[in-house]
Amino acid sequence: MQKNQVPKKFTPAQQIRLFILITLVLGISFIIFQPKVSAYLFPFVRQKKQIDFITQQNEIFDLNSYYEFRELSGGFGSWNFAYDQIDMTAILTSLPSNYQEQPILELAKFQAPYFQSQTLITDQETADAWLAQEATAHATVIKQGSDYTFFQNSDNSITLIFEKTGAEFLPNQGFFDLSNVPEEKAWLEARAWLEIAHF
Predict the structure, then answer these.
(1) Are strands 104-112 and 115-122 parallel, antiparallel or unpaired?
(2) How far apart are CA 86 and CA 108, in angstroms?
């Protein structure tokens, strides 16, 4: 009759090696399967995400794909809100009393290692002039739709400019709530909202 075998115990050195192996496997898996980390570490992953993002745009710019691309490919970033506020009432209170006459107002900036953007509101005439100025400042247009343009810069980075009305932009952005500014809501929704991004 065979005696019951006693399970073999790991020596302290073997336990340490096993711990290191498991840690390495988990760490490598995290890097490979976590999109934000892999895009931050590997240029070829960022480049593929850029190509996919640009390619999937049709005539009308897709805001949701933009937010996803910014989140997953820009690296770990931070927001800087105008007047250190995201509450629209506080922002409007902080603005000069003639803010509705200002040609352009910056509301927010996003800064990450591989992605920077600005959110501006302006009137349609100023937005058109801004877009025309940017078009002459960049040599190569990669792709263009009715409300966006991708530019190739001399250092191979990309500049994206897109324009939406406040009514199109605000429901998707997740920051600025207009429910507490009913008097200014119509004005804000009618303005041209510009986003300028570099990646």
Answers:
(1) antiparallel
(2) 9
What is the rounded CA–CA span in Å between residue 196 and residue 199? 10
> Which among 161, 178, 162 has a CA at the least distance from the CA of 170?
178
Amino acid at 41: L
- One-character DSSP codes across 147-162: SEEEEE-TTS-EEEEE
Q: How does pLDDT run along the chain (199 residues), one tens digit per residue?
A: 455 665 667 777 777 777 787 777 776 666 665 666 666 667 777 888 888 899 999 999 998 899 888 887 777 777 777 655 556 666 666 665 655 566 677 878 889 888 999 888 887 777 777 777 777 776 688 998 988 999 888 888 899 999 888 888 777 666 666 666 666 777 777 788 888 898 9
Nearest to 85 by CA among 69, 102, 106, 67: 106
CB 150 within 8 A of CB 50: no
In terms of pTM, does the model score above 0.85? no
Burial bucket for residue 63 (CB in 10 Å: 0-12, 13-18, 19+): middle
For tokens 């920051």, what's the residue?
A: 175
For residue 197, count other CB atoms closer than 10 A to its CB: 20
Question: Would you state the structure tokens that stand for residue 125, as one six-digit string?
Answer: 């005439």
**Token reading at 122:** 């302006």
